[in-house]
Each structure stands twice: as structure tokens, then as C-alpha cells.
Amino acid sequence: MSSAGSGENAKTQIGLLEVPEHTYLFPKVKGHGRSVSHGGAPSLGNSALPAPGRHSALRSASRGHQRAFSHGQIGEGPSRPGHSRTGSKTDFILPPGHREPSAAPSGQTARGSARGHSRQASRSESIYTLRRTSGPPVWRRAIGWLLRRPVSTEERRYRTVVPNHVVPEKTPKKDHPNGKRVDNKVRTTKYTFLSFIPKNLLEQFHRVANLYFIFIVLLNWFPAINAFGKEIAMIPVLFVLGVTAVKDLFEDRRRYLSDNRINNSTCRIYKRSCDRYKKVLWKDLQVGDLIHLSNNEVVPADVVLLRSSDPSGLCFLDTCNLDGESNLKPRQVATGFQDKQSSFTAGKFVSSVEVDTPSTKIYRFHGAVVHPNGKRVPLNSDNLLLRECRIKNTDYVEGIVVYAGHETKAMLNNGGPRYKRSRLERQMNMDVIWCVLMLLVMCCIGAVGCKLWYDEHAPAPSAPSASPFLSNTLGIARPLPPYIPYAWDPAYEGLLSFWTFVIILQVMIPLSLYVTIEMTKIVQIYHIHNNIDLYDPATNKRIECRALNITEELGQVEYIFSDKTGTLTENKMVFRRCTIAGVDYNHPSPVKSHPMGSMLNATESPTLISANPQILEELASDNFADGSHAQRVREFLLVLALCNTVVVSHTPHHDTMDASGIVESPPILRTPKFVANGTKIKTKQLPLTTEKYSRLAESRSVTPSPPPSTLPSPRPQTGLPPIPPSPPERPRLLQIPNFNIFNRKRKIENGRNSMGSINLADMTSMSKKPILEAESPDELALVEAAMTYDCRLEKRSPREVIISTDGEFVSVPILNILPFDSTRKCMTVVLRLPNSPVITIYCKGADTTILAALTPSPEGSAERAALMRTQQQLDAYGRQGLRTLVMAKRTIDVQQYEEWAEDLKRAELALDNREKKIRECYNVLETELTLLGATGIEDRLQEGVPHTIAALIEAGIMVWVLTGDKPETAINVAYSAKLFSSQVELLKLMARSKDQAESTIRCYLDSMDNIAVSEDGNGIVVSPLPNRSSRGRALVVDGKTLTFILDKKSNLTGPFLALTKRCTSVLCCRATPLQKAYIVKVVKEEMGVRTLAIGDGANDVSMIQTADVGIGISGQEGMQAVMASDFAISRFKFLERFLLVHGHWCYNRLARMILYFFYKNATFVFMIFWFQLYCGWSACVMVDQMFLMLYNLMFTSLPPLAIGVYDRCAPEALLLERPGLYAASRSGVAYRPRSYWLAIADAIYQSIVLFFIALYALWDSSVDIWLFGTTVSSSCIVVMLLHVAIETRSWTILHVLSLLGSLGAYYIFTLVYNAIPWQNFGFPSSNYWVMETALATPEYWLITALSAVVALAPRLVWRAISASLWPGPLGRAVLQRRRAKKIADSLGAHYHNASHSTHIYRSTVETAVEKHTTLTAVG
Q1: Which is nearest to 1258 in space by CA: 1171, 1352, 1328?
Q2: Are 52 and 10 a contacting pair, CB within 8 Å?
Q3: Which residue in 1391, 1217, 1195, 1160 sits closest to 1308, CA to CA?
Q4: To the nearest 5 percent, what fractions of the chain are helix, strand and coil?
Q5: Mean pLDDT across 1387-1412
Q6: Residue 563 catalytic?
Q7: In b/e form, how buried is each residue of 906-930, taking b as 16+ CB within 10 angstroms?
Q8: What is the arithmetic mean of pLDDT over 1151-1161?
Q9: Average pLDDT score, the chain
Q10: Of 302, 323, 431, 563, which one is the catalytic site residue?
Q11: With contact defined as beta carbons under 8 Å apart, do 356 and 56 qualify?
Q12: pLDDT for residue 1255
């Protein structure tokens, strides 16, 4: 290692690594001068070179990450240097005008490159950076500057991990080489026992409303302006803070219990003292421990893989818990350890591991294993097992822990819940501001009134302020009133009264409203989550609400953007059609009378497809000439079996080490061996995997392979097929002798074939039905189709693929796999077929990619004719709604391949534009292809999708479907899903240039305006067109056209959106993930509408996070969309009830609850304000201070909850029967800006009625201020509760209990409170026995009744008039339903008799309701 680069003495390091086993020296480590940058590639030296002259494996200067528009990063702004999107699973096609950032200078440091890292999804990087690793904190740098000691940055650049078993066990932590690393104990709780109170209060004080009321409490501590007792003034704030704290405590307790469960899980680590693995808790795991993991075991920390049960050093990782992706990801042991798998021993591993510092980039990892001899082995993300992932398809693995606890990538990316604000909440906050302004106006009026009153009683300028006489402005001396013991400056008194008014009128600001809204939304979500109608028994999943604060937004959705595959469809692919060399072959669903039924094993279930007889005839023929159709069929089936990433396992995996680290003896299986005539002659003992792990538990998304439905003869169930004594008869199904795939001389003899790569144990396990794990359902369908014709995928490893046909097993070496990405839209496998002198390239992908890469064929040739027929058949597949893939091949010589492999290696080692260079290498190989055929795969619609989409469109919601499928397929699915109907006019927008797109859009807009634009010699002529039919329109647009439309320079966004407004639905084909997010962003911002996006895959995450409401479907493509969503459902059909019922209810309930809060608070405040007219603006109140504090907290708190949770503006069945009623919620009728002012006006009117009726009824009587105040407050409570009764739309027992409970709480509390002489205890209270006295007077009851009638009469009259004359669509539908029910009840009672009561009643009711509904609809 270069000392200049690392600052470390090379000699010291070598000495460290050459010490004997079980000893350790502690050198002074200084670290590297450079570290790997985010996203950079290591610059690795030749491992054969001596250590002093070698660069660090972590040393590179690369460019960081590109901030791309994906997964929530949709916005405008300058691009920052970073990696490109190439190779990404969600690679995006950017619109014209987007410029890639210029390359960073070669001298750019790691710190500079860390700026602006990405959330961009890559094929191996599906969790996006939520935070970035920053430098030392400011305070630490400041201290270092003051002490003239520069802060070391080595810790944030790289670190060295030493195996713990080479360090003495009793080494102090401060002297341990790994002692500074964190342990594996995790804590996701926000609080601890000591930090709960201060931290929770600090968080709550971030709310402006809470700060306002804290300010009110502090004001009340000033004697000159206090209005209430200091303790009493704190009651509202303490109540609100306490309720919120209790809620936060319960939420944190759930995290605490989850942390305990995780920390107390067990794993096995190597212990030097006993020289074996021992069971320990996860929280006791340390960096540097060697760990042993079994199949299906969760990885407890970030581990570098050193050993695997697979001979090739391979294991598979299920990352669903981490990034939501359901496909298995392969992981490989470190370079140089593959050949030592059988001899690897944990106790002999003494090498150190050098890794970069912890970062949030999930699949970015660089490091090196440094052996004692100085040799360095590079590490990358393929060698790292991440915490929270699960080991799959592997008996066991072993590795060394490099990151633990909160330094693991999973914990660094453990972000908190997102927070979104709904439009209703934003409108409410604006109305709160209006409340503040009204409060300030009333306080200013009160302060001015106080000053003017003091001016009337101000002392003469020459008189002393303490004089018993005052003089007015005319100088006339007046005696000092008895209630003014001394006089001050009127302006000063007015200033003090201003702050006093702020205290007594604080109820105007609804502090408890925020707490009530939170509690209401929690209960709403609880009921939604437990709705049995939203439960899917097939998947055993309920609806999941991940965002707790936007339930009301569900009732105001105007645009829905939906993915197709997996969202509208099942995402369970079934092979239905294929075309080979232009010949179409159908594969219908199997029927009971299967043509090959006699050959099926009776114990096996039939497959979803049936073999095509024509293909069976081709396979059974003896025509093996090159270029023959039979040969093309065989090669086509071979591509289906080879060109994929399907993982195969035949037996459940079993680890011989138990949970305590003790190795068990494996059971023995006696495998029969056969001779030529099939007679068993000897047995061989083989380890047998037990059934400890069931077949279904082998993998989370496994699919048993289909039985060989077309085999002409059965094969033996165990052991090997019988070896015939003479050259065998040619297989009847899949023989490709000219391909040299299946050499007939290559037989299985003595447990090995001539290739020497398949042993008897492998063959025994392969004779069982395999379990397939596919990265996508499409690949699984293709492999199953090949298995139907006995071309079976038996085993896959990074270096080879084993296939079988008719009992013969052949190993095909794999040279390269070019993975699928959304830019290339294809996948390629490079392999060397046995006994073939050339390299074969098989490629499959989208028709737009493969057909464009074919070798040009002359006109009139057979290849040209086959191509034309294939294109026609692809169009026919699309019209049938099938997903299409095209297969092609290419052959190159070995020299060409070696040159290409060198170019690819140089591209992979490049520091600049690495992804671009790799893509260019891929393109070199994926050209000059020869067409083999194409496939059509069926993806069925989910149950209830057509009905749901039709209901959403009827509800007035604009539905857009965004898919990557070809237009023909997407249009066919759109008709099936009722997105399009036969009555709509289909508009197609498929342009290949900007001008063509603009002209097409203008033409459609002009035709809709009934004008024709033409041009003659005199210029442009505009003429009217005859009226066209008034039927609806639907728009279809492809991805190429979207590229022009989304380009801001084209100025086509506005006309395009204007065109979409006149359409009932829109279908976007060939859309990339970025285009999906752009469309949602443009529609949301340009049109100002509420948007909802729904999808099920990783490519939908950008769209989901960009929309106002994001919904993920827990389907076949993993959980990544669910993890990024606000709500998660299991079926698309649940969206109808979720929006039209629960969304409608949630919005209507919250809107009316908020308005009621403003109304009741304003009414009470205005009553206090009117009293100031009669108390000289002295900020005196006529009610007890305790009543003022408990008005919101106790006396009127339950009715708003009843409205917000259980009130129903319309029955559930009615909302589902008439989706158009959703328009009332979607348009926000319940809460508009004028609604607030109407509520304030009603509050002013009712406050005047309540105050002045009591005032004039008790005028010139002997009642005191407290009796007057009690009468007014009682009338106010009664009116507030009756108002709730008027606003209640559906009565339940909870509504009744809330009203009676509130009224009872008021009277019980007041009676008890007034019965206690608080003056004797030192409290400032003078209302002893006031309520008891008031209840005994008839005036109290008369005033209360009269006030209630007069106050509520206008509202009742308005309700009656509006319900009769302008009921609105919702009110009209409810009335019609009630009338229909009354008619049904009367008819049912008329035909009721004792013997057939049930039958006659039901029939009559249903008929009456149906008839009345029909008549209503017609009328």
C-alpha cells in the first residue's frame, strides 16, 4: 500500500498480517488519504504485486450519484455529478432537452463526490439514499480549530476489521482493534425513560398552536394582565400536551417491543475458547465475529461472505424485507475462496478486512480482504450479505461481520414515516389564521374601548394619580368610582387590557382541534383497517394505512393513474401462443379430455397449458438438417430454457449444524443403482436432506414446475434411468444433434457423464420435481412452457446451466449474462454449446428492440417472409391482450468473443462514464441477430377490475392507465377492463416527431371545437363542421409521443392537457417509469387537481410518491410499491369501496367536524366580547374561569368525535349503487371558503341571541354576574349540542351517548364545582351555589328554551327549505332511497302472512325497490 496514499507504514502492516495464529499486535493505524467515493469503483492493483507498492482497494476518485427524477425526486433543478441511470431496473428515458451532467474532474475528492447522491433505483440498488454520510459535526471541527488539532477524517474514509478470534478474549475494549465499532443492538424508539418528557415537549413545541398557548399561559403569570388563576390557565395546554404525549408513548412502546424481539433473536458465531460456533443473541454480535447462517435464516448484520454450501461459493438472498423486491439476488464468496469451500475453517481465518465506512447506499460496497502474506482480494456488493435479508436456496453460509447495529445499511436507511398535508388541512390552517386575525381585531377593539373608557374617567393633568377624584376631558372633577382603586395612564391601561383580552378570548384559537383531528383520523383508519369488505382471504391481507393524516384526501381524488401489469391484471403469466419461424402455435387452457392425458402421471396435477400437437409432431420427426423447421422448433425451446435467470432447487435445504452450533450426523439414503436391464445391483450411501423445511417454505415465491405432460414414456422415480446395452433410440421430443447439444455418446456411467460435472447425487436430486424461483412471472411462464415439451431446466449456477431431455442431462457453460434493463429492453445470455466451435448468443426482449437489431434480409427471401408473418402475429397477439417477447440468436467465433470480453472488462473498470461504456459493449453484441420466434403470454385481469373502473369513471374521476406494453396489447386490455367502451371515440396520438405530435393534437382540438382549418390561395380558412356525435372520447398515446409532450421546449404540455380534459380516459403505452412520474407531476401542478397513483412494482414507486395519494398493491412483484405508498391494498377492486365509500365519509366527516369546531368556539368568544359592552371593556368575564377552560376539553369534546368518526352522510350501499354521488365529495362541497364565513356568521347571530335574550330577560333584576353567566353558558351548551343533533345525518347509539354525556358532564361538574366553597381553600372563586340557585328559578329554564329556539330557528328553516327545493344530488338520492324503503315496507307488510312470511316479504321488497329505482331513473 502506498504510504503516501494511506499514511500507513507498509512494513508495519505486513508485520501485523504475518503474526502467528491467536496473536495480535496493535499498530498505530492512520488510514488512507483517499476513500472510495459514493458510487465509485475501486482501483485495484495486481494482487501479485508486493503490498508496499499497491494502492488501496478503497482508493478511487469517482463521481457520486446523479439526482434523477425517481422515487419522490421529481422536480426541477440543476443536475449534480453522479452515476448514470444505465443498468437500472427502473431506468428512465428522459425527454428531449435533458442534458447529462458533465464528467467530474479526475481530481475530485470523495467529499465532493458525495454531494447530491441519488435515490435512483438500479437493478441492484432498490433502496434509495435517504441520508448521506456527512463529515465531522461543526462543534467537533470548531474544537479542533481552537485546540489547533485538525479533526481526523480517517474514520469516515475507511476502516479495518480484524477477526475477533485472533484477539485475546479479555482485551479491553479501548485496546481492541474493533472496540470503537458499535455493537449490534438496535434502538428505533424515539425516546428513553429519561428523555421522554423533555424530548416529547420539544417536539410538540414545534407546533405553532402549542407555542401560542404556552405564550398565553406565560402572559397569565404577569399580575398586571392576568385574567385567570395561574394553575387553571395551564389546564388546556396540559391536557393537549398530555394527550399527545400518551399517544406518542404508546406508539413508541410498539417500537420498543419490536426492538426487544429483534435484539433477543439468536444466531451462531465462532468462539475461540470452544473452537466451534455457539448461539448468542443478536445484540451481543460484534464487528469481527465469524457467523454461521442456515437456509431461511435472517442475516443479523452486514456480513462479508466467505463460505457457502454451494460448491461454486454461491448463495441467494431474499431482500424483500429490505427493498421489497421479491426476486432472489445471487451472492458470491470473495475471490479466491471459491476453491477453498470444502477446506475452509473458521479458526484458521486470520486475514483482516478493509471496508469503506458505513453509508446509506444499499448496494454500493467496496473493500478488500488482506491476507497475512500481503495479498489483497477485492470485495464488492456481490460479496456482502445485508442485514434483514434472508438466506435462500443454500444449506448454510459463513462470513465475517463488517457492519453491525446502527451502522448497517438497513438501519442507516431506516427512515421515518412520511408526512403529507391534505388540501382540507391547508384550508383549515388558513381559516385558523383568519381566527387569529379576528382575535387580534377584537383585542384591539377591547383595548381601544378600555382607553376611551379611562379617558372619560381620567384625572386632571395637575391632579395626582392617587387622588380620590377624577376629572374628565372638560376639567370637571368627578369622584373615583369604587371599582377603580387607583388610576393610571389610559393608554397604558389599554395596552394591558389588550393582553388580557388575548388571554380571555384564547378560545377563538381551537387548540383542541388538532388533537381531535388526530384522534379522529386514528379511529377512522382503525375502522378502515378492520373493514371485512376490504379483506382478501386469498392473500390473508387487509388494507394497510401507512399515512395517518390524509384520509380525507381519499374523498377528493380527481385523477387516478394506474399501472396495468400486476395492478389491473393478476401478474400470473400463462404461456398461450408462440410463433416459430413465422408459424403460429396455440396453447389453449387444458380441458378434461387432454390429448396427452394418457401419458400424464396420475399423481401430478395438470399444467395451465397443454402441448400443441403440431410442435409434438415436429419434435418427433427425424428431420435434423440445419435450417429445417423441426430444428428451429428445438432451438426455440432451448432458448426458453436457457435465456433466463430462473433459480432451480430440487430438495429443501438442510443445515447439519443445529441452532446451538452443534453439528448433527446426516441421515443416510440408500440410492439404487441400475445396470443395463434395470436390475438393481448395489447401493450407494448418500446424505439425505430431511423434511425439516417444507417445500413451500423453501422460498417465499416459489412455483413447482409443471409435470412433463408430453412425455411418451415414464422415467424411473428414483435413481438413474436404465442404461441400455446398445445405442439408444433417438429421443422423440427434443433432439438437437446438429446443435451438438445432446451427444448421444455422452451417457451416464458410474454416476458421472463424459463431461465429469454431474454426479450421482445431483442426478438423484434432479429426478425430483424442481422448485422454480423466477425474477419475473414472464420468465417462469417461458421455462414452464419448455418443460411442457420436456426441455427441462434442472440447475443453474453462475458458470453453467444444466438442462435435461428424456432423462439425459447436459451441462452448458455460461460465459456472460447481459441482464435486462428498461433502456435496452432485452436480456442476453452468452454460452458455449457442447462440441460447438462457435460462441452462441441468445437474446430475448421487446419487439421494438429485437426486430430493430435483426440482420437485414433481402426482399423475397424466406427470412423476410418469416419476419413479416411474425410481425403480423405479434400484432394479433397484442389485439388479444397478450404480452409479447421476441427471441433471436447470433453466433460469433471465439476470437470475436475474446475481443469483446476484453472491451467489456475495460468498460467495467472505467472510472468515467462506466455505465455508458458498458451499455455500448452490450449493444455491440446485441446486433446482427437472427430471428427465432416470439411468444404471447396471457396476464388475466383481476376479479372486479372492469366493474371498479366503470364505477370510478361514473364517479367523475379521470382514469389514466400507464403501462410499458405495446399499444395493441394495452388497448385490448383497456376494452376488457372497461376503460374504453364501444361507444367512445378512440383518439390515437402516436407521433414520431415533434411537429407531427403538435399537428395531431391541434387537429383533435379543432375537431372537438367543430371547426375545420384549411388553407387556400388566400390564406388559412376556418369553417364550421357539422355536429358530431356527443359520445365520449378516449385517448391513446405512446411513449415516443410522451417524450415530445413532456419536453418543456416543445410547449405541447398545455395543448395535450387540454385534449385530455375532453376525454373520459387516457391510455399511455410504452411509458417508462420516469415518464409515469412526469405525467403525474405535470397533471398535478398544471391542472391543480388531486391525484392518486396506484401500482405494484418497483417501477411504480416514482409515480406513487409523486401523487397526492399513493396506493401500493401487494402483488407478485414484491413489496417495494407498498413500502413507498400511503395506503396498501391487495386487490384493485377494493379501490371502489375505499374511495367511493370510505373516502367520501372521511372527507365529509372531517369537513363538518372542523366547521363545527370553528362555529362553537366563535359563538362562545363573541358572547364574552358582547359582555365587554357592559363592563367598561375591563376584560372581565361573566363565567367562571374553570368553565372557560373546560368548554372545549370536556363539555363540547365528544360530539365532534361522533361526527368525525361515525356520522354517515349517505348509506354505504347507496354510495356503491350510485358512484356519481362521489362528485359531492370530490368537488369539496362540504368545506369551501364560504363555508367558514357562513359558520362565523351563524356564530355571531347565535351569540347575539344567547347573550341579549338572557340580558334583557334578567335586566333590572337581582341576579349577579355569576348567575347571569351561568344562565348564558347553559343556554350556549344546549344550543351547541342541539346544533350537533341537527347536523347529524345518521343516528347511532354513540351519537346519543355523546350528546347526553356532554350535557350530563356539564351539569354534574357545575353542580359539584359550585357546591364547594373554593374561597376557603385560597382559590379565586365567587360562584358558590350558583348553579343550584339557577336551577330553582323558572327564568333559567325559560331563557334556555327560548334562546335555543330563537338561535336554531334560522338553521332549521334553511335546512327545511334547502332539502325541499335544492336537495342536491346526494340529498335527492338519500330521499329517494328512503321513499323506496317506505314503499317496500308497506308492500311487504301488505303481503305478509304467517306461513310464507319470509318468502313473500323478501320478494316483494326486492321487486318494489327495483321498480321504484327504475321509475326514478327514467323520470
Answers
A1: 1171
A2: yes
A3: 1195
A4: 40, 15, 40
A5: 41
A6: yes
A7: ebeeebebbbebbbebbeebbeebe
A8: 93
A9: 75
A10: 563
A11: no
A12: 94
